[in-house]
C-alpha cells in the first residue's frame, strides 16, 4: 500500500516542482500522504535544491517537512557534497539549509579565484603573497578545500589549467595547517618523545592531498602489536606486556622479558608480515612516508627504525634512536639501571636489517668506518625529524625520460658558463640550434637541445606538477596549450597538429 502511494506520488512531483501554486494538479493527493512517505519522496534524489525550495513554498505541511534543520535538506547536502559529512556529529544541531548556502557560496568563490590564477601568475611562479585572497575568505575553510578537491576530480584529461592551480591552492592551505601543527609539536619539551607523531607530520606535509592521520597510522600499528602479543603469548603466557592496556607507557625492566618481546616482534614483522629494508629502490621517497611504509611493508633505516621503536615501546621495551652515520639504528640498554654506562653497555638494533642485533664493532663494519663514541648517543625528536627531512632533500635519481615542451628558443639563450658546464659544444650542432624548455616525468624542468629530443610515437601523460600551468588538456597524442601559452606561441599549435598527423601517417604505413 505504501509502495503504491510512493509510486503514485512520484508522478506528481515533477509537475509540482515546475508549478509552485497550491492549485497545482495532484497537490492535495500529495500532502495527504503519510509523513514518512512524503519524506521518502523528497529525499529520493530526483529533486534538486531549487525543487525543494519551490515545493516548500506550496503549503504549510510541505514547508514543515522541508524545515532547514530537517532530513530533507540534510539529504540534499549529503548528496551534493558527501565527503563533508564526516565533519558533522550525528548529535549536533545543524541548520542544513544554511550550510548548503554557505557551501555553495564557497564553491563559487573558489572557482572564481582558481580562474584568476592563470592570468595573474602564468609568467611567474605563485609567490607566497599570491594566496592572500584565500586567507581572507569568509566561511569554513573545509568548504573551500572541498570545492578544490571537486575541481581536481573533474573528468579525465580536461581542465588541466584549473586543476593545476586548484592543486597549488589546496597544497598551500593544507601545508599551512600542517606547518602550524608541526611548529606547535616542536615547541614541546625535549622529553616529549612521540617520534611517530613527528614522522606523520612530515608525511602529511609532503603528501597534503592524501588522507593521512596519526589516528589511522596508530591503528595500523596497534594491529601489528596485537599480532606480536599473540606470538608473545606462545613464548610466555604470563608475560607482563600482555596485560598492558592501550595508551599505557609502562616499561619492563628485566632484560630477558624485553628479549622475548623483541623475538616476537622480529617474527611478526619480518617473517609473518614480510617487512624488509628496501635495498632495490633505496632512494624512493615513499620509503620515508610512514603511511607508505605500512602499505608497502618496506622502507629505509630511519623509517623502519621508527616503526620498530614505536611497537617496542608500546610493549614495554625502552629502545632509543641513534643518529648513526649512513645507517640509522636503535639501541637497547643491557646495563643495570642507574649505573654509569658507555657505548659497550648497549646492543644496537638494525631494523632495516630484519632486527639484527649488533655490537659496537659490528656497527662499524656495517658502514665500513670507525666512528667516535658520540655518534652512538641517543637523539631527541627534533634531531630525528631533521634527519628525515635531510633524507628527503637528498633523494632522487634521473634516467632517460619522457617530457613535454612548453617553450623554446631559436638558439641556446643560456650564458657561456652554463653552455660550458653542460658541454653543449660537444653536440654536432652546438648551441646554434633550437633549445626547448621541457617538463620531465620525474618532476624536473630542463633546457634541452633539439637534437637530444625525439617525438614519442606512443605518447604518455607526463606526471609533472606544472603541466596544468601551461596546458588545458591531454588528447592522447599531444597536449593542448592553455590560453596563456597559446598567446605566447600563436603559431605553434598548427605545427603540433601537422607533426602529429605526419607521425601517425608514417606509423600507419609501417603497419600496412
UniProtKB/TrEMBL annotation:
<dbReference type="InterPro" id="IPR001810">
    <property type="entry name" value="F-box_dom"/>
</dbReference>
<dbReference type="GO" id="GO:0003677">
    <property type="term" value="F:DNA binding"/>
</dbReference>
<dbReference type="InterPro" id="IPR032698">
    <property type="entry name" value="SirB1_N"/>
</dbReference>
<protein>
    <submittedName>
        <fullName>F-box only protein 21 isoform X7</fullName>
    </submittedName>
</protein>
<dbReference type="InterPro" id="IPR036047">
    <property type="entry name" value="F-box-like_dom_sf"/>
</dbReference>
<dbReference type="Pfam" id="PF13369">
    <property type="entry name" value="Transglut_core2"/>
</dbReference>
<dbReference type="InterPro" id="IPR036623">
    <property type="entry name" value="Hemimethylated_DNA-bd_sf"/>
</dbReference>
<dbReference type="Pfam" id="PF08755">
    <property type="entry name" value="YccV-like"/>
</dbReference>
<dbReference type="Pfam" id="PF12937">
    <property type="entry name" value="F-box-like"/>
</dbReference>
<dbReference type="InterPro" id="IPR011722">
    <property type="entry name" value="Hemimethylated_DNA-bd_dom"/>
</dbReference>
<feature type="domain" description="Hemimethylated DNA-binding">
    <location>
        <begin position="390"/>
        <end position="482"/>
    </location>
</feature>
Amino acid at each position: 500500500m505504501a509502495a503504491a502511494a510512493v509510486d503514485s506520488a512520484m508522478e506528481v512531483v515533477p509537475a509540482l516542482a515546475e508549478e509552485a501554486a497550491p492549485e497545482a494538479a495532484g497537490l492535495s493527493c500529495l500532502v495527504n500522504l503519510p509523513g514518512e512517505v512524503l519524506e521518502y519522496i523528497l529525499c529520493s534524489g530526483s529533486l534538486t535544491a531549487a525543487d525543494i525550495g519551490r515545493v516548500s513554498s506550496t503549503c504549510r505541511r510541505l514547508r514543515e517537512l522541508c524545515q532547514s534543520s530537517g532530513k530533507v535538506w540534510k539529504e540534499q547536502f549529503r548528496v551534493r557534497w558527501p565527503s563533508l559529512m564526516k565533519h558533522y556529529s550525528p548529535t549536533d544541531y545543524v541548520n542544513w539549509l544554511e550550510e548548503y548556502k554557505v557551501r555553495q557560496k564557497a564553491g563559487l568563490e573558489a572557482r572564481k579565484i582558481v580562474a584568476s590564477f592563470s592570468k595573474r601568475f602564468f609568467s611567474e611562479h605563485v609567490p607566497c603573497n599570491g594566496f592572500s585572497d584565500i586567507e581572507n575568505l569568509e566561511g569554513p575553510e573545509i568548504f573551500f578545500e572541498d570545492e578544490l578537491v571537486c575541481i581536481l576530480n573533474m573528468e579525465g584529461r580536461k581542465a588541466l589549467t584549473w586543476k593545476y592551480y586548484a592543486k597549488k591552492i589546496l597544497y598551500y592551505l593544507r601545508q599551512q595547517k600542517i606547518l602550524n601543527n608541526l611548529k606547535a609539536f616542536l615547541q614541546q619539551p625535549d622529553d616529549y618523545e612521540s617520534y611517530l607523531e613527528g614522522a606523520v607530520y612530515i608525511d602529511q606535509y609532503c603528501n597534503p592531498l592524501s588522507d593521512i592521520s596519526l589516528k589511522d597510522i596508530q591503528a595500523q600499528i596497534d594491529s601489528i602489536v596485537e599480532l606480536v602479543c599473540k606470538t608473545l603469548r606462545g613464548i610466555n603466557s604470563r608475560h607482563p606486556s600482555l596485560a598492558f592496556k592501550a595508551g599505557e607507557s609502562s616499561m619492563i625492566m628485566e632484560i630477558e622479558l624485553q628479549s622475548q618481546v623483541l623475538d616476537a616482534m622480529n617474527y611478526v614483522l619480518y617473517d609473518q608480515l614480510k617487512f624488509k629494508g628496501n635495498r632495490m629502490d633505496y632512494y624512493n621517497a615513499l620509503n620515508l612516508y610512514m603511511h607508505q611504509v605500512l602499505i608497502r611493508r618496506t622502507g629505509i633505516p630511519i623509517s623502519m627504525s621508527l616503526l620498530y621503536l614505536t611497537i617496542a615501546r608500546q610493549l614495554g621495551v625502552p629502545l632509543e634512536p641513534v643518529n648513526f652515520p649512513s645507517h640509522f639504528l636503535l639501541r637497547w640498554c643491557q646495563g643495570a639501571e642507574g649505573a654509569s654506562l658507555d657505548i659497550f653497555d648497549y646492543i644496537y638494533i638494525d631494523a632495516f636489517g630484519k632486527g639484527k642485533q649488533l655490537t659496537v664493532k659490528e656497527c662499524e663494519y656495517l658502514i665500513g668506518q670507525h666512528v667516535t663514541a658520540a655518534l652512538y648517543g641517543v637523539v631527541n625528536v627534533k634531531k630525528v625529524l631533521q634527519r628525515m627531512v635531510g633524507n628527503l632533500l637528498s633523494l632522487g635519481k634521473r634516467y632517460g625520460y619522457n617530457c613535454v615542451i612548453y617553450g623554446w628558443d631559436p638558439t641556446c639563450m643560456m650564458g657561456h658558463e652554463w653552455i660550458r658546464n653542460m658541454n653543449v659544444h660537444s653536440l654536432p650542432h652546438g648551441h646554434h640550434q633550437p633549445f626547448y624548455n621541457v617538463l620531465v616525468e620525474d618532476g624536473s624542468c630542463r633546457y634541452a637541445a633539439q637534437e637530444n629530443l625525439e617525438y614519442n610515437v606512443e605518447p604518455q601523460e607526463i606526471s609533472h606538477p606544472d603541466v596544468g600551468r601551461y596546458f588545458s588538456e591531454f588528447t592522447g597524442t599531444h597536449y593542448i596549450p592553455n590560453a596563456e601559452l597559446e598567446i605566447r606561441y600563436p603559431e605553434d599549435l598548427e605545427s603540433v597538429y601537422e607533426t602529429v598527423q605526419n607521425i601517425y601517417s608514417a606509423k600507419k604505413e609501417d603497419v600496412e
